[in-house]
Structure formats: C-alpha cells, structure tokens
C-alpha cells in the first residue's frame, strides 16, 4: 500500500531494478516496450512509485492468469487421457 506522502515519490532505475530483482538492461527493455512509465529528470530517467506499483500488480495478475491457464491445460489433458483410456 502506498502512503499519501509517498504517492509522488520517484525512483531511479537502479532503485527500481533492485526492487524488481532484475537487471537494469531488462528494465530498459520494459521501458522501451512501454510496460513501465518513466520520465526524464535532467539526464536521467525516473519512475514514479505509483507507476512501479501499477506494473507490479499487472505483472502479478498476468502471472496468476498464466498459472491458471497451465493448470486448466493439465487438467484437460488428464481428462482427455482418461477418456481415451476408457475407450480402449
């Protein structure tokens, strides 16, 4: 949860990469694809804490959806295998 004083907090790319446990190179790829919003401050890029939290929530939701899809696929495969075995 973001506290109101932190709502406008901005992070450096190193801080964001550390929080996301990824390399700066990977973070740059995410920025290039527009998956995380950033803006220029002088010569450096900054990412708003709100934008970081938004990205994390979207990533968590996407991972959950992918896990559910794989789970359904495994269940469907098991059901199909059972039906085929019953026919033999």
Automatic annotation (TrEMBL):
Residues 11-59 form the Helix-turn-helix domain. InterPro entries: HTH_17 (IPR041657), SinI_DNA-bd (IPR010093). Transmembrane segments: none annotated. Coiled coil: none annotated. It comes from the Bacteria. This is Helix-turn-helix domain-containing protein. It comes from Yaniella flava.
